[in-house]
Design goal:
By secondary structure, the protein is of the alpha/beta class. The chain is built from 16 helices and eleven strands.
Length: 456
């Protein structure tokens, strides 16, 4: 029997990370998410858990590339004729640090070449990841040319192979997620710029939140199936929310004022090139779709800028990561005054994990099963009804809209939690995840837990 993975909606704390992952899941064209953080902060856990909340997909039976019957692509296996569609869950494909280029992009099928004398193409990991998630742990340790190949495919949505007498191209639309510990080395600026969004993850320094992380992890380890069952409703609600957001994204209007505000912000932070403008625009549209808005607002632009610009701005070696949020607000004021909603009234309640303590689990999650003791402890999780109301936690996912919030917890911006930057973002993070109730911690403001989560 397969052990259930740790629920995405049960992760405590990582509101900003869950926002970035869900935005990228709505719009893979954004170009992926780079997760930077210290060891033991549930980076791998929440990424692996994301696949469990992605909507199931229809594929053409027998197609090695997982083509969508409703949107036929130029497929090397085509034409498919009347092949019946089959349903499968979204895939998570992990790329090991030692992978070769042949394994990544695909190569000559040696079995057929030697046995039948035919030069056929053998699909690689990019083909397997089509319409799913391609996950690279320790991406900073991957060879630069492989990182470049991944980022090219993620941005273009296709993989083109010209080698070994093979000339082929196949669809490769996937959500690229890379995690790294900056202590082990940095990515080159040119590669950093190719990632659509970036998130800095730090463990919470709030004892209450850390206690909840451990409590949930121990509960999951003791009874994985029972723990997952308690979060099943929240997971299903988030899956439905993502499916709806994907459909709505094509109809979201990005007005001239919002577009000009995006360009003003990118210019104000002195970012190089125009990739930042394009990525921020796409992320703002996806963020609006997640919040069921028909038009991009100031709140969406602000949330997108906080995710798309930190790794692109010019800064000195000793500058803290992140954006100057006061400058960001001043730049937005020039194009989108507060009458559009500084952070969007709609986002206030649903942005932070459980800013006001919802009524069901939601928010981030982590795949608990793959978390090892060396990660330093349990994964993060939102409060589940069984985990005990009143226990502080800061579920990963944010918007109450996305998934019901855990009855018990409403994570406040604990004193020792995430850095100021993470706290400031809590209003605009995504759909909901449970957090600890304000009552559980005296003085908690209910703004959403700091960014730490459980070890991965």
């Amino acid at each position: 029997m397969v052990t259930p993975s740790y629920p995405f909606t049960a992760v405590v704390g990582a509101q900003e990370l869950s926002t970035a992952l869900l935005v990228a899941a709505v719009s893979p064209e954004i170009g992926g998410v780079l997760v930077r953080g210290e060891k033991g902060t549930a980076k791998s856990t929440i990424v692996r858990a994301l696949t469990r909340v992605l909507p199931a997909q229809e594929v053409i039976a027998g197609c090695r590339f997982g083509c969508d019957p409703a949107q036929p692509d130029t497929c090397p296996d085509g034409p498919h004729g009347s092949a019946p569609p089959v349903t499968r869950p979204a895939r998570l494909v992990e790329l090991p640090v030692g992978a070769t280029e042949d394994r990544v992009v695909g190569s000559l099928d040696l079995r057929r070449a030697l046995g039948e004398g035919r030069a056929d193409y053998q699909p690689g990991l990019l083909a397997e990841a089509h319409r799913g998630i391609l996950y690279v742990d320790e991406v900073n340790l991957l060879h630069d040319h492989l990182v470049d190949v991944l980022l090219d495919a993620a941005a273009m949505g296709r993989n083109t192979v010209e080698r070994d007498g093979i000339s082929t191209s196949h669809p490769a639309r996937f959500t690229l997620v890379g995690t790294m510990n900056p202590e082990e080395g940095e990515l080159r600026p040119q590669l950093l710029d190719r990632f659509g969004l970036t998130v800095e993850v730090r463990a919470s320094r709030d004892p209450d939140e850390r206690t909840e992380v451990v409590r949930r992890r121990l509960a999951f380890d003791a009874d994985p199936s029972g723990f997952a069952a308690r979060w099943a409703d929240a997971e299903a609600a988030l899956t439905a929310r993502l499916a709806q957001a994907r459909e709505l994204a094509a109809r979201v209007r990005l007005g001239d004022r919002a577009l000009r505000a995006i360009s003003r912000v990118c210019a104000g932070f002195d970012v190089d090139g125009l990739r930042a403008d394009i990525v921020t625009a796409r992320a703002a549209v996806a963020h609006a779709a997640l919040h069921e808005r028909q038009e991009v607002t100031r709140a969406d632009v602000r949330a997108a800028a906080l995710l798309a610009l930190p790794h692109r701005r010019r800064r000195s070696p000793f500058d803290e990561p992140g954006l100057d949020e006061e400058l960001l607000d001043r730049l937005l004021d020039e194009e989108l005054p507060h009458d559009d909603g500084p952070d969007g009234p709609e986002d206030d309640p649903g942005c932070g994990p459980d800013d006001d303590g919802g009524d069901g689990p939601d928010g981030g999650g982590g795949a608990g099963t793959d978390q090892s003791p060396r990660d330093g402890g349990p994964d993060t999780t939102a409060t589940s009804p069984a985990d005990g109301p009143g226990t502080p936690d800061g579920t990963a996912s944010q918007d109450p809209d996305l998934a019901p919030q855990a009855p018990a917890d409403n994570a406040g911006d604990a004193d020792g939690g995430a850095p100021p930057r993470a706290a400031a973002r809590s209003p605009s993070p995504l759909p909901a995840g449970p957090t600890a109730p304000a009552a559980s911690r005296p003085g908690a403001s209910g703004a959403g837990p700091p960014g730490g989560a459980a070890p991965r």
